[in-house]
Design goal:
This protein has 223 residues and is mostly helical. Helices cover 49% and strands 0% of the residues. It is extended.
Length: 223
């Protein structure tokens, strides 16, 4: 399969979960052309044997070692693994492009952060606490800047030398127009878990496109 076509198919497959999550009783997946199209692209990848045998059971550490050994051509993952690969001479990274002209999200941020400060709305000194939280966050931000890490406030501090991979990630992060939590975070488990299991079935080649979309309709409708 040609590289450009493979990448296009992989992109479509990668956004399948987010598109499916947009379905509701007024805009069900079966009536959503984008969801149907993405599901069909997953099937094409399966038909072309694009996925390595047993990949559904592979753990992150296993994928890392397979990539290092040159047994994986590509490993779609998140920025949390930049530090794992940044010193590998034979491994590079690329940022997935936007999935459409009207899509305001350049990327997707997870539902966890390495640090955070919260102020109780019921605090007698809520305003003062909020100011302290902001100022302390700036101190943490400057510490991250000195270490060459991604920052959250503008700062004049010059970072230490960054690897090409870290710089690629930070350049991408700085271009974010909006960010979002993982859609799975917001779903009730009675919907989220069946959707997850259904996606696993499709990527394992156990169900066809029509069955996937119909079952997705049923799950979202709560039937």
């Amino acid at each position: 399969m040609k590289r450009k076509k493979f990448m296009a198919l992989l992109l479509a497959a990668g956004i399948l979960g987010s598109l499916a999550a947009c379905g509701n009783k007024e805009n069900a997946p079966a009536e959503n052309a984008e969801t149907q199209n993405a599901a069909e692209k997953v099937q094409i990848l399966l038909d072309k044997n694009a996925f390595q045998s047993g990949y559904m059971q592979a753990t992150q550490p296993e994928c890392v070692e397979l990539l290092r050994a040159g047994k994986l051509a590509m490993y779609p993952t998140g920025s949390w693994q930049v530090s794992v690969f940044e010193k590998e001479e034979n491994i590079g990274c690329a940022v997935f492009p936007k999935t459409g002209e009207e899509n305001p999200y350049l990327s997707c941020c997870g539902n966890a952060a390495d640090s955070g400060i919260a102020v109780s709305a019921n605090s007698e000194y809520a305003e003062e606490a909020a100011k302290l939280a902001v100022e302390y966050s700036k101190v943490l931000n400057d510490h991250r800047a000195k270490n060459g890490e991604q920052t959250y406030f503008q700062t004049d501090i010059e970072p230490r030398e960054r690897s090409e991979m870290v710089q690629t990630y930070i350049d991408n992060f700085d271009k974010l127009e909006k960010s979002q939590l993982w859609w799975y975070t917001y779903l009730d488990t009675t919907i989220g878990e069946p959707m997850r299991d259904l996606s696993h079935q499709q990527f394992a080649g156990e169900i066809d496109v029509d069955t996937f979309v119909k079952e997705l309709d049923r799950i979202i409708a709560g039937n």
